[in-house]
Specification:
Blueprint: H1 23-34, H2 41-49, E1 51-55, E2 63-71, E3 75-82, H3 89-105, H4 113-121, H5 141-148, H6 177-181, E4 197-200, E5 211-214, H7 231-234, E6 244-246
Helix pairs in contact: 1-3, 3-4
Length: 248
């Protein structure tokens, strides 16, 4: 009979891997963190009802807010956080709050006092119209502690610079046309930025989705500039709307 012994062996406990956290889940968690600071119930529900997505976005833009652009039994704002402008989880959180503040402030406020007040309500104490280098010090300390404690995105990171097709980041971020332009080029100091306004065509008979930048406060069908003082008789472009386009 063999005298060899069978030695026991132990399989090391393998801990379950941490669940993957998507960018979409992160920006939604940021929204869930800051929206309870809004005391008005209707405004709070409007922010929670906005369609919040993480997508490609045009190059150089960190986020966009389209007012009343999503239908789900009612009209909701549509907010996109852009992968092409992603720098860090701090910037993702800052841009999410920046765009939510556009929704809270409402159409036509640009980056004026109402928008800055909305940023403060949501916990972003230092808010700039464009190109902000976000820092934890820009947030309310309690809000930042809660955001920092959130699981950070772990599903990968954008690499648009390394692909042969698709959007690519420009060497410098372009300013938000609505926030600067409609404020007369003063939102970052007198004389800064462009005075042009961005209009998006919604005419069925025109070219839906076509964009033009003009200084006019009103446009006619198919985005034709209107100089006629009898403009109300001419009629505006159907469903034309301004939207916020940010390098926030």
């Amino acid at each position: 009979m063999s005298s060899a012994r069978v030695l026991p062996f132990v399989i090391a406990d393998q801990a379950d891997p941490e669940p993957e956290v998507s960018h979409e889940a992160f920006v939604h968690a940021v929204r869930a963190t800051v929206v309870p600071r809004v005391t008005d119930a209707a405004a709070r529900q409007r922010l929670l009802g906005a369609k919040l997505v993480y997508g490609g976005g045009p190059g150089g833009v960190r986020g966009l807010c389209y007012y009343q652009a999503w239908q789900n039994g009612a009209s909701h704002d549509f907010i996109e956080i852009a992968a092409t402008g992603e720098e860090s989880f701090v910037q993702l959180a800052g841009t999410t709050v920046h765009e939510l503040a556009h929704s809270l402030a409402g159409h036509g406020c640009g980056h004026g006092p109402e928008w800055k007040a909305a940023c403060a309500v949501l916990g972003l104490q230092v808010a700039q119209a464009a190109g902000q280098s976000y820092s934890p010090a820009h947030f309310d300390p309690l809000i930042w502690a809660r955001i920092e404690a959130l699981p950070h995105p772990s599903d990968g990171q954008p690499s648009f610079r390394h692909v042969g097709a698709g959007p690519a980041l420009p060497p410098s971020a372009k300013p938000c046309p609505l926030g600067i332009g409609t404020r007369g080029g003063r939102s970052r100091g007198a004389g800064s930025g462009s005075r042009l306004r961005l209009w998006v065509c919604g005419c069925v008979e025109g070219t839906p989705g076509r964009k033009v930048r003009v200084a006019y406060r009103r446009v006619g069908r198919n985005l034709q500039p209107v100089r006629d003082p009898l403009w109300p008789r001419v009629g505006p472009c159907r469903a034309v709307r301004l939207h916020e386009e940010d390098t926030s």
